[in-house]
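A common beginner's mistake is to predict each chain separately and then try to dock the pieces by hand. The better habit, illustrated here, is to supply every component at once so that their relative placement is modeled jointly.
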Amino acid sequence: MITGQKDYVTPKQGLILKYQGTFDLKKLYNSSKEWFKKNNYVFSEKEYKEKPVETGTEFILKVQGDRKIDDYTGFNISLSTLIRDTKKMNGKYKGNLHLNASAYVLLDRENRWQTNSIKKFLFFFYNNFILKNKIINVYEDKLYTELTDLINNIKKYTKLN
Amino acid sequence: MVEREYITPTNGIKIKWGRPTDLKELYRQMKIWLEDNGFAQETTLEKKYVEMIKPSGKDIFILWEAGKDVSDYFSYKLIIQFLLVAANEIEVQEGNLKRKLMRGTLEVDIIAYVEYGKNWENLGALNKIYKKLITKSRLEDYSKDLYDKVYKFQKFIKDFIGLTA
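With all components supplied together, the output reads:
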């Protein structure tokens, strides 16, 4: 049953990747940005935090990509990265990386069917009886494949396998 | 009816850092960038400046509202907020120079949107149909243009303070 405008393809808390070791932060950031661009997502950097603490630098990086599929449907991928105890070593960084990736298919992206209860019912009916097959077998699959591709891209710049 | 197309998430894009910063110079450079790109004039940019002195240091909040008209119908709007928490002035030796920097946690939020639909009420019916037909594609072009400018501005800030990525 599809309820609401956001149809998640990941668990709601997202897919979690944890890594401890060396990585190239600049390359990791730039390659993710490039990936969004290459796959027709509008890239937004919601938050960038860099703060030195006693144990090393702490980074928080929250980015998201929005892609328009048609006037009704869109894709959204969000990445939230927390890197702690980071220390610079030979141009690379060493630290604890915790990445959270979530993705959903956005339905009624222009909010045209949310204004009253009749429209909301039609929105529910359309998603669950007319468009359901396409949402599950086309949109969700496509978005999940793209998210996997993005995660693989991230793994290239760490030693995650 | 005036409408908004947000380029950034509605609560803005956020840059936060905690290293000592030449805040005065950053403030000046950001102002110059906005003026050079036609977004602001010296006198109309700053809408709010609040400074609170606390035992842990100074808290400073600054609000800027910048914008420019790109046509009779469309305009770009930028809202920039600075929040500096627990700021203390420190002296740093750089070569032969002693520089006064601010140490504290600084956050800069940038909210950007394209505003359109000005003077809509004064237009005739034919004009309204025409505007409606061309608005969509124009809006996409202007949104893309403002998006590029906002991220150039963000990169300019990041480069100035020497952030990693």
